[in-house]
Amino acid sequence: MADIIEIKDIHAPELDIYARLSEGQIAHYFEPAEGLFIAESPMVIGRAMDAGYRPFSMLTEPGIAQGQGCELIARCGDIRVYTAEREVLEQITGYALTRGMLCAMYRKPLPTTEQICREASRIVVLENVMNPTNVGAIFRSAAALNMDGVLLTHGSSDPLYRRAVRVSMGTVFQIPWTFLESNHGVDRNSKKLSELQILRDLGFRTAAMALREDSISLEDSRLLAEEKLAIVLGTEGDGLAADTISECDYTVRIPMSHGVDSLNVAAASAVAFWQLGRRQKIE
Prior knowledge:
Blueprint: E1 3-6, H1 16-19, H2 23-27, E2 36-40, H3 42-50, E3 55-60, H4 62-66, H5 70-75, E4 80-83, H6 86-93, E5 101-106, H7 113-117, E6 122-126, H8 132-144, E7 149-152, H9 162-167, E8 177-179, H10 197-201, E9 205-209, E10 216-217, H11 221-225, E11 229-233, H12 242-247, E12 250-253, H13 265-276, H14 279-282
Parallel strand pairs: 1-4, 3-4, 6-7, 6-11, 7-8, 9-11, 9-12, 10-12
Antiparallel strand pairs: 2-5, 3-5
Helix pairs in contact: 8-13
């Protein structure tokens, strides 16, 4: 049974996770073991638990603990649940909680690239997508629009950062993902994806989303015909590195109108996933 603790001192060290530690410090809280992340709102916390993530502690409003979050807390087992009124919680966290509840949760070991790709037909590759809002939005679109997994370079934002988790509406727990390892074609000291050979070895063709003179339309029938396709998206502003584009099998553009040259990476991802995820439906 959870231990419900009313907050008396907002400077108590057990609240550091919610109030005073950075995202990086939380992620490495038990180093060298897996660290923690913060899930926000009962729905997102529930999705994380459904995916096998274990709660470490919780911070919530009393009304939520006794109402909407009561069943959720009952699932948490023997953890500490800290409670305080909304105004006090905002002093602790520095922002208004979404639906009045935060939960610190244990991270899980990440799968390998091979494990994610083994049964997949559509994979997303994110090269240095640094904005957690964009990462969260891309995950939400990927989960909704028939993508089977997401691979990220180490220059990308952590999908388990609080804002990414919140924007994704918890879909980061519903679609497999991992960071590409340095011995699998990513130079941790580089700002580009150095090679895509591991995906080729796993039977994937690669499609770089980029504006080039030789790019083909997203509607090109060859893309839909690919049995295994990796959709490669680049960082905000600069897009994909030139070397990454040259290594891909296709360079793909989204047809535009009114003189608009490009979309935000999260918006572009949704368009690409909608079109290229349709393969399973047209066979």
